[in-house]
Write a structure and sequence with these properties.
The complex is a heterodimer of chains A (247) and B (468). Chain A contains nine helices and ten strands. Chain A is α/β, with parallel strands linked by helices. In chain A, a hairpin with a 2-residue loop joins β9 and β10. The longest helix of chain A has 16 residues. Chain A has two domains: 171 residues, Rossmann fold (3-Layer(aba) Sandwich), CATH 3.40.50; 68 residues. In chain A, strands 6-7-8-3-9-10 form a six-stranded mixed β-sheet, sandwiched between helices. In chain A, 45% of the residues are buried. Chain A is globular and about 45 Å long. Chain B has 468 residues and is an all-alpha fold. Chain B contains 17 helices and two strands. Chain B has a two-stranded antiparallel sheet with strand order 1-2. In chain B, α10 runs parallel beside α17. Chain B is elongated and about 115 Å long. At the A-B interface, α2, β6, α3 and α5 of A face α1 and α8 of B.
Amino acid sequence: MLETINLTKRYEDGELALDGLTVKVEPGEIFCMFGANGAGKTTTINLFLNFIPPTSGTALVEGIDVAKDPLKAKRHVSFVSENVMLYGNFTAIQNLDYFSKLAGKRNLTKKDYAAVLDRVGLQKEAFDRRVKNFSKGMRQKLGIAIAVVKDAANVLLDEPTSGLDPQSGREFLEILVQMRDQGKSVFMSTHDIFRAKLIADRIGFMRKGKLVMMKTVQDLAHEDLTDLYIQYMEEQPTASPNASPLA
Amino acid sequence: MLRDIIKKEILDNITSPKFVFTFLLCTILILLSIYTGVANYRAEKKEYTAALALNKKNMESQPNYNSLAGIGVKVSKPPQVLGTVVTGIEEAVGRVAPVNIAADPNLIDSKYSSNPVFAVFGALDLMFIVKIVLSLFAILFTYDAIVGEKEKGTLKLALSNDVPRDRLILGKAIGGYISLLLPLLIPLLLSLLFLLIVPDVSLGGQDWARLLLIFLMFFLYLSVFFSLGLFVSARTSRSSTSFLVLLFVWVIIVMVIPKVAVITAGQVKPIPSVHEITAKKDAFLQQVQVEGQKTVREWVTKNQADAGKDPKAWQEKFRQFIQDYQQQLTTKIDESNAALERDYQQKKRAQQSLAVNLSRISPASALTFGSMTLARTGVDEFDRFLASVRAYKPIYTKWINSKLGESINFQTGEQSKIKIDDMPQHVYEPEWLSRSLVRAIPDFALLTVMIIVFFVGAYVSFLHYDVR
């Protein structure tokens, strides 16, 4: 389970990146966070991974305070970032092997790695190719494979679908759904409203560090997500009758 | 986990084009430097043997002791076998010190003076390669060690796991350093093998120990740049910035500080020029010569009456007077020259010492001085050699003066043929390893301190590094 309680981050230059965020992602749930650039989505993920310390509030992973025990908390988190280049001189398998070992998965064989790479939709002939020759989409798939191999109870995804072609995007969504079905908590920051609508259990809209609206998949069934997105990304949003403004 | 990080770092480096490039260039340069070093040493050794034989032949061919006293004896400095690795100042400083009655011994006939084009390009010895080329490679291996991973996103990905930052930096440092040493170790081992098998180059037990200490100093020097690279990489947020900063620091450390230190020392502690000292010595010599002629004339005038009474006894008395007086004058000249030289050397040493200590802020200077001390090709070794020649001069002067006195035949006016079998020989004992080591300890210590400071800086910086 992923949870933030009144989580706030103000940078040294005075910018308020996150303003009292309180949100909980339950096991077996996919939570998609929308927001313009600088709205606080990536800051939330960075706080979950202890890349930056919070100004106030708490980020919890499986009930573990990330700021107090970051290493223990990270054991329970897989992470996929927006644009990871990985080690260009390594093959896909070598990259996967290294990050698996860092994640504590030491007994995996080349066959296991091949199975995961196959699952994320990477072509077989690319398994032993150097990653520096990969397209952005192929690297993204490898990044997802790294998260899959770690098999943590919680998954943080920062703009994971950028660079994926429609086929790869669909395969990616299938993996996320499988993760949810396995009982994982999935927190995804994204601009991809179309894909999010297909899999999200809840969505949140962030603006200027605040969570301004949150909706469940049931709410979304009767609303146009694109309209909502445009509406809540505006400076002064007009509240929808079905919305539940939180700030 | 540490092993995985080290393994990854080594694999990542050795599969990169920069490793292949470094390995090839290191191999070519190191082997070339050893080859040219050995060729130079063999040529110098031949030259040294020839110079000894020529000097002996030249002395023996003199018609009398008078002309022998005129040409004097030439003391040649034997070449140092470790000059094959660290040329030091061997090529810049003279290899021969002429010893005669009138002049104060000094080293002349350097390789650069006989062929100035060498001075333009300098020696391509192993120390030069380590100091300039390999230190740049150390930067090339580390400038993006941290910041490059940040740019690739792999740092975030690695640290999204329960990987302690201290272990990650330690693994990167160990793996990176091993990767840097790999292209260096293989050509170095080949060089050692070459030194073992090549004829005319015989390294004694002390030489091997010195060589290993020199190699240790090379590794320490490269570690300074390696840890500096890590430090700057952990303080910057773009690899291009890191590279530029490191290049700037490298130029300051390797090129600027040593030269500025020498200029500063020259300004702070000025010394008289060699010409001033020579002019003073010449002036005193002339004064003594005038004085001497006057004294001889006075002695002859005073003892003129005795010459008629017993010419043989007078001649013997005159011979004794000339011999004693000649010795007295040369002693006087030597003492005056020695006093001037002492003062000059004292000032020169103070200036040199200031220059050396100031320049030691730079690891390049510490490497230069330390390795030259260990290879016995530095300033101190030449000073020691020159001091031994200067100590030899009065011994030689005494011998030649006695021969001059004995050889005068007042009746025939002829001088007896020369025999140099009983001429005292110059003896030069090179510095012992223990003494060299004691003198090189400050350089070892400085390099070690720099490594610790930069590594701790990198370590602490990485613990607080913004990985986003």
